[in-house]
Amino acid sequence: MEEEDDIFLDAVEEVEDKMKEDPVQLDRMKDGAPISLGQGLEEGQLAIDKFFSNDYEAARDITCRYRDVSIYHALGYGTFNFLKAVMTYEQDHVDTASKILSQSISTIQLFRKKGGLGDSLGKMVKRKDYNEMTEMEVHAELVYAECLLLKAMLTIVEDENLVSFVKAGMKVRQAYISFKECFSILHKRDWSKDEHKEHFEGGVRLGVGTFNLLMSLLPARIAKLMEFVGFSGSKDIGMKELLACYRNKRCLRQVLSSLILLVHHLFITTNMGKKADCDIRIVEEILEEKLTKYPNGTFFLFFKGRYDMIRGRCEEASHWYKRANNSQVSWVQFHHIGCWELLWSAVYRTEWREAVIYADRLLEESKWSPCIYAYFKAALYCQLPQLTADEQEELEQLMSRVPELKQRIAGKSIPMEKYAIKKAEKFHSQRGRLIVPGLEMLYLWHGFSIIGQQRHMVEKVHLLVQETQEQVKDKTVEDDCLLDLLRGMCLKHMGFPLQAEDAFNSVLSKSSQITVDKYLIPYTTVELAILLLDQGDLNASSNLLNRAKNQTGYCLQNRLHFKIHATQLLIKSIHTREATTTVPDSRTSRPEPTSMPVLKEFSLTESSLHHKPVCSSKENLANSLSDCREVNPIM
Q: What's the whole-model pTM score?
């Protein structure tokens, strides 16, 4: 708690200094009409409804009006500008959002409970009495934590270097301290005289749930790094808290919890190989509710498309994505997210020409990752049976441009961009030839979890693989391995596990001959492990996962580690379930987890001072942090 006081007092002094330098804001605080907490919450809900009804300017105007005299207006105005910045990825928008978020934090600080020397000494002899805080002060504590998280995320985008990561980490740490304080307030305060507990409770549950869920998803290497500085997480607690916030229909943050739940079930579970964790019932419930309330809301139309996509209904998904894009014109950048999904819908259907159209638009308009867009368009050209002279020339130009378009985060390249550069180099070294790069992309972007639900789609891919194996001459060993990996995936989803196992083993038998696409061996090892797990051979599966986990020096390593981590958790849960079923013992039973966040308090105790850090150098730290951004460049 003393550490919290130091951070709080330092922050207050910093804000007071800024206010002295900026008398305009101070005057507005003195002269502006008082905004009650109730009015702030009411207008905050109105702004949210406008925003999700695609009336972005109206939402912005509502929050802008009292942003200097109301904590919820300040948070809303900062949030809308944050979303615009991360969607456009344009430096002027990022700079504007950063400035506005700093102003929002300064405004919110003025409403937090002031701490003095007497308060600090009092805490040494008695517990803090949260009933001494006004309702405005407890809400300010929560809004401060939320705004600080937004600022932390924007810090990385604002200046992508190691120092920015450190600054962002410090802000996340401060936000955690405030969330922990809010959790204590929620459970120790007498709320009988307060009118807006449900909004505060929803915000606490949203923050605690999101922290726990995100921490639980990290693979072992990054998780250990986070644990070293005091963080850990429980997926069960995270989901419980998020669902509690969603079930509170009157809560201001209910719609935000629904968005996080949709992202988790529709994107994270698929992209991390945790398809079984996708709760279709809650997804359908959220979409039905939100599309009834916001029938033309671009966000929920988009999620409806994603819902159809993960069910293997790609044509229906394309319909909803197009509706989402056509529902608004104010945020063209959101169209790029739709284009990204439309591209994959076409790839899953092997409609290469259609996919080229969307890749071309992304390359021309989106600033997220021109390197990946350029490679994707070139790879899609490679899938076409015939190209015009202009298309062939553009293909070669695109492959040449790929290395020039790479970006760096904390001094490191984005992993998928490194992969694209290696493939472009291989294209030139093989005199303008790559084997099924579009199908390779489909595999690496977890496409088989989607097309695997529609047999005719898998059979179409299987036929393309067979034709390539039979018709293409002068294939390299690595070409054969890629084709066998794809063939094994097709056979697995077509219901031929023994033939799939043979295909995977064929790849592994040539491991010593692979020199460029080294990812093929660990990735195939994991696919074989999952195949054996599906057949009930837990020990063999676990051994293969450990073998893959110990392999290093290949592209997209952390992407695979997320999948390994998810599969190992599944094996662990199976073992636990079997042990509980066969050997019931009340002495070893544990109570259900409470809502207490599993975010450890960090203090420089003797044990932590002597604990060996996971990353022993700045380079290793940068690697771990940059690997976190190994999801697709849009989502």
A: 0.82
